């Protein structure tokens, strides 16, 4: 994975602010980041009885929009903010600050009844752009391939489109879903389907995660750079976070918060301390 060690080197623990965030903290954005945030918020509120935090997950693009519009102090994103989004934010007096909280790999999934075990990056591209439409063409049993994709507001969709589809359009007949959970549910019920999800969603009942180029998506293969579809997971705030927002961010970056990251099958930042020395990707 690119820039793992450099990102880690630049990651600073945020200072605790003395002031409090008034009212409910509405966290919005990525469904990929949601499992981390959900468990972290539960643990955080158990320790901070006076803090109320709500989570709304509908996609990274919606998280960026909410930060720009001032409807959230904390946006969850599975991609970096685009230059255009930063420009829009700056025009409204918002100054996005990126905080890396974990790493993830995007895993292709099929129905558990599918005999296919591995696909190459080229095969994934051809399937998701509609050039390959039958499972027999990739070593499976004859039958139509049903493509399931995230919708365009998703950071997972954008990362997959850039790194797997090489910016080609997704298959026109693809079933577009609003969340990782929705993709997993559709694929678990449709025998000929294929989708892609964040690592935390890949082990749901009825699913089988595929290897890519012979490499399984995992914490180890993400850290050593051998799994080809890996990325950072982010929170964005308006400038340096303060009050309870800063406390929540710091909790997620703490050893306790990073244990939560690992507990939902994502890759905690502390694991990068040794991996970064290897100089992989």
Features:
281 residues, alpha/beta, D-Maltodextrin-Binding Protein, domain 2, 9-stranded mixed β-sheet, two-stranded parallel ribbon, 11 helices, globular, disordered N terminus
* Spatial gap, N to C terminus: 5 Å
CATH superfamily of the largest domain: Periplasmic binding protein-like II
User: What is the total tally of β strands?
Assistant: 11
Strand content: 15-25%
What is the CATH C level class of the largest domain, in words? Answer: Alpha Beta
Q: How many helical stretches?
A: 11
Shape-level CATH architecture of the largest domain = 3-Layer(aba) Sandwich
Task: State the domain count.
Answer: 2
User: What is the fold-level CATH name, i.e. the topology of the largest domain?
Assistant: D-Maltodextrin-Binding Protein, domain 2
Radius of gyration: 19 Å
Unreliable stretches? 1-22, 272-281
Shape: globular
Largest sheet entry? 9 strands, mixed
Query: Structural class of the secondary elements?
Result: alpha/beta
Helix and strand pattern:
HEHEHEHEEHEHEHEEEHEHHH
Helix content, binned percent: 25-40%
Mean pLDDT, all residues: 89
